[in-house]
Design a protein that fits this description.
single chain; 19 strands; six-stranded antiparallel β-sheet; five-stranded antiparallel β-sheet; about 450 residues; rod-shaped
């Protein structure tokens, strides 16, 4: 009897296909088709009664037979464009920059020398020399931490005379009366914040006994730290023979930033020194665009330098630790502007790319009885990326359990470098069951 029932269902299916085809040709076919289906349904009911024995048996079967699963379709969205490649704002002068904390985005080489401009030839480093002087002094006379004042230094008549020596040379100076004294930490602050050259020589002589001994110690320190492109002949930088390369100065910046006393002083905008008063850091970019240090240098027009560190929040979790140097700028404002432009171009290179809108359709479900529902992205989404890093997309769907609105039926994931964004896929709308009449008149669709 099962075979006979199947044959009947097949005949009904063929009859529907035939009458549907006629409707496309004859304008009156629709009316004839309805009449034929009524007759067909009547015949079907009579035959089923005959086959199953009673009308009640067929009705019970038709109303409770399993329904076919809705047919699912899906289409994965294509990868979105990540945007144009970032054009890093490189200075016109000789420069180098290193970035730590963002290697997964910028590349593994970013924490070395990530970008440069100009040449890597040695050029006068001017008062950046005082960083070397301070580190060499602290190598010989270490302080316990950034707050340790250290021993007291009393300045002699010879130290006082340095004021006049450097005044004639046009260097930065601060008063140093004979017999005055201050702590080692404050004396280092005098040479690092206002960049007082007379203090650089006085303190280095105090630490080593003579300038000859200091210069010899400084050269040993330079060699021990692998600064092969660096030359120092005196402690202040007033001599153009104090030279270094951009890449060496990046290494010097790391050494300075790792020393608690030097790092703290280089990050101090101003401070009060007993017997002197308020001193101000020559680095007027401190606190601007995340800049935290280190040292300026200046030998006049075309010889303005800045060795700097910066901490930048670009939205990736960890902050970027930037170390940079610019040598040979035309003026202090031009150096500052070029450094800020470079940092801004790094910051702007990290950007959010919209990848999906709330309710965006990526598929759907359909049933033989005409009920439909959509597969949509549950919420608006974007992904943070660097420059033109390619974005990939993957989508996974699962078989629904209820086929009801808001049921989660998979997920979609976008990946850009180390960053991923995953959003659920949900059903929009409900798959409604068929009515009893559809069940009774579509036995061939039932399980």
């Amino acid at each position: 009897m099962t075979d006979e029932f199947a044959d009947l269902a097949e005949l009904m299916r063929e009859e529907r296909e035939l009458t549907d085809g006629l409707a496309d040709v004859d304008p009156d076919a629709r009316l004839r088709r309805r009449r034929r289906r009524r007759i067909g349904l009547l015949i079907t009911a009579i035959v089923l009664v005959a086959l199953l024995g009673t009308t009640g048996g067929y009705v019970v079967w038709a109303l409770h037979a399993p329904l076919p699963a809705p047919t699912a379709t899906s289409r994965q969205p294509g990868p979105p464009a990540s945007g144009p490649a970032v054009q890093l704002a490189l200075p016109t002068a000789a420069s180098a920059i290193s970035v730590s904390g963002g290697e997964a985005y910028l590349g593994p080489g970013a924490s070395g020398i990530w970008a440069t401009s100009g040449t890597n030839d040695p050029v006068p480093m001017a008062s950046i020399s005082k960083l070397i002087t301070a580190l060499v002094i602290l190598d010989a006379k270490p302080l316990a931490d950034a707050n340790d004042p250290g021993p007291t230094i009393t300045f002699s008549k010879a130290d006082h005379d340095l004021y006049d020596k450097y005044y004639v040379m046009g260097a930065t100076i601060v008063s140093m009366p004979t017999g005055s004294s201050m702590t080692q930490r404050d004396a280092l602050a005098m040479m690092l914040l206002p960049s007082a050259s007379n203090y650089a020589e006085a303190v280095s002589t105090w630490a080593f006994g003579s300038q000859g001994a200091f210069v010899a110690a400084a050269r040993r320190w330079i060699a021990a730290n692998g600064l092969a492109g660096t030359t120092l002949v005196e402690p202040t930088g007033i001599s153009p023979r104090n030279t270094s390369t951009p890449t060496d100065l990046i290494a010097l910046a790391r050494l300075a930033a790792a020393n608690p006393t030097v790092a703290a002083l280089a990050a101090t905008p101003s401070m009060v020194v007993p017997s002197v008063g308020t001193i101000t850091n020559t680095n007027d970019l401190l606190g601007v665009d995340g800049i935290t240090g280190l040292k300026t240098g200046n030998l006049g027009d075309g010889a303005y330098n800045l060795l700097y560190t910066a901490s930048m929040d670009v939205g990736i979790g960890d902050r970027l630790a930037v170390t940079g140097v610019l040598l040979g700028g035309m003026s202090r404002p031009s150096v500052d502007n070029q450094v800020r432009a470079q940092l801004d171009s790094i910051r702007e290179g990290f950007h959010d790319v919209p990848v999906a809108s709330h309710g965006q359709q990526v598929g759907g479900y359909a049933t033989p009885w005409g009920s439909t529902a959509k597969i949509v992205i549950a919420q608006e989404a974007s992904i943070l990326t660097w420059s033109d890093t390619p974005i990939t997309v993957t989508m996974q769907t699962t078989t629904p359990k209820t086929y009801l609105d808001d049921e989660i039926v998979g997920s979609i994931t976008w990946t850009a470098g180390p960053k991923t964004t995953t959003i659920p896929l949900v059903i929009e709308g409900d798959i409604e069951p068929p009515d009893d009449w559809w069940r009774l008149t579509h036995p061939d669709e039932l399980g």
